[in-house]
Structure formats: structure tokens, C-alpha cells
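Bumping with the actual sequence this time:
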Amino acid sequence: MLASTLNRSLEVSISPPHRPADSELQLIAEGSFGQIFHWPQQTTVYKTVREDGHHLQLLREFECYSAASSIAHQPQAPGEFGIPRPWQYWQPIGIDQPGRIINAANSHLSVLSPRYEANRELSSRHLWSEFQLPTFTMDLIPSLHPVISQRYKLLFWAEKIRHTMSIRLLRLYFGRTNLPAVTISVQPGLKSDPPLDVSRYERLAEDLESYGIQMPTPQQVAAGMGQVLARLHWLVGINASDIELVLGGSPAHGVQLYAFDFNQCKQWLLPDALHTGSKSSARLTCDKYAEDTLSQAAKRLAILIFTQELYYPRPHQTGLYEHFKDGYMGTIEAGRDNWAAYAKEVQSAADCFFEEYERLDAEKQARTNRLKR
């Protein structure tokens, strides 16, 4: 995930990309797949891979950002998630050869089959010359207001660790209920985003009211999670695997919700397959979902989200889960015009998603209850 847990499954070198010793670039997040750097005073960040062999995965992530940010860039209501806009992808060719830039504006909406019109040689440019491995730029997610970071540490961290690391963002783990009341240790030097479960979120939100900072309600956040997940599933066509949902800063509103980190996402729905005026016999799904119907694929998406993701509320979390489900299904209903010919099939598949999601949760709760006897 963005940065904090990028591609945990890959075992790669952890040496940083080459940059001059006097560089002002600041490392703000990192993981086993890549690192994110920020140049002071800029509103963009630079995401680079640790190994050149991962350049295709980075390019696909760049393309994914292009598609995803087009449907969720500027949130209008509390609880809605924004997605950083990508700007340029930099592919170095060689030490003595010009590189190339790919502009996000020239990327086709598909995250599988991009169509680029502009491939231009890169002349001498100071910032790109900092990187010897593939890199792309995207909007910087603003850091939380210092008051929020300070209050989080005072509320949830033991005194001995409060000065061990800075906090830029907070992960929204609304499907998790086992966070300790107080965190007593963090990994030294870790560039990661600490977690907020619902309990911590509510306590932090109440605390911040006295500082004039208004947080979205947990119900609004849950609904926003459903909205952004549905958009990624059905408008972008990706499985949303391992994306990160966080609380970040906002100059206008104090806080803002963001979804990002798409390096693990896979496309399950063919681009524009549902956006036709009439049905056809053509396949709708792709990749490892290629042999599935929409409903079968939706069940597999539910298994993925339930077993791998801790961000989304679970069915047994009454009072919260309903808002998550309503956010997802409301997005499906609002998007009927996008897939008019397949509206019934999409609605049925969304129903299957939640039937499977609820079945998995019921089974897990039953196992937990048996162990408590």
C-alpha cells in the first residue's frame, strides 16, 4: 500500500534509487515494491520502483491512477474519497540515452490496454535526472494537520514512542476490531501510516472537536468506502486488491479521505464492455476472471475483499455495515446509465457480492463463537 506496505509479497533489494548526495528530495513513504519522494514546496510526489524489473507493474499502476482519478478526483461531500491524479511516467532508457515521458492525459481509460499518443524524448530536466529507475509523478496527499498527529499520539501511543516517527496519514481500518487501547512499540524508521479502527476514530473525532476540527462521521466514512469500492469495481474494472484508504489533510476542510496505491490491482472487467447500447455475445470479464459470469466474478471479488482487506466494515458491525452496503449499492443504482444494456446483470452481480460477503462473515462469526465456548 502506498507506500507503507507496497507489494509485501515481493522479496527485493531495499537499496534506494540513486540520487545526488545534495538532493532535496525527501523520502516520505516506502515498501518492498517502491518508494515515494517529495520535493519541498511541490504539490506532487515521485513514486519509483526498487528494481527495474518491476517497471511494467509501475506503468500499470500509473495507468490505473489515470482511470481511477477520473471517476473520483474531487470529493464533494463528507465521507467521499478522493484519488490522487497522476501526471507523468518517466522511463529512463540508458545512462547516455534520452528517456521518455508518458503523460497521463494521453493514457486511454483502460488499465490494460493504454493508447499513448505522446512519447517524447526527455531533454535535461533536473528532477527526472534524480531517478535512474522508472518513476511517475502524482498529486501529493496533504499531511494531516499537526494537531491531529499530536492528538493521535497522545491518545493512542505510549509516551516512550511518541517521538520515534512522524505521522502523515492514518489508515482507516474499519473492518478491524482488535487494535490495542495503547500502542507500545513501532518499528524504528518505519515509513508507514498508523491505523484507525472505528473505536479509535470515534475517540479521535470527539477529541478534535475542541480544536475546531470536524471529522466525517463513521457512517459517512463507511458509505464513502462503499462508493469508492463500487466505482473501482464497475467503472474502472479493477478488483481493488490491496488499495489503501486513509485520512489525510485538506487545506479547505481540515481533513479529507483518500484512496490510493494500486500496484496490486488486477483488471477483472474488460474496458467499456458494459458501456454498449445493446448486449452482445462478447466476453465481459478478463484475466483470471475471464471464464466467469459477472455474478461469479462478483463472488470472487467478495472473497478477495473479505479475506485480504481490513478497511471495509463487516456485516456483524451493525450500524456501520449498512452504510457501507448502501454506499456500494447506491453507486450501482446511480450508474445504471453507464451500462444500460446490462443493468439487470450488474445489479444481480452486486447482490451476489454482498451475499457472499455476508456468508463469509457469518461463517467466521460462527467459528469465533464456537471457540469461545
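The C-alpha cells above came from a reply further down the thread. Residues 161 and 186 are 7 Å apart (CA to CA).
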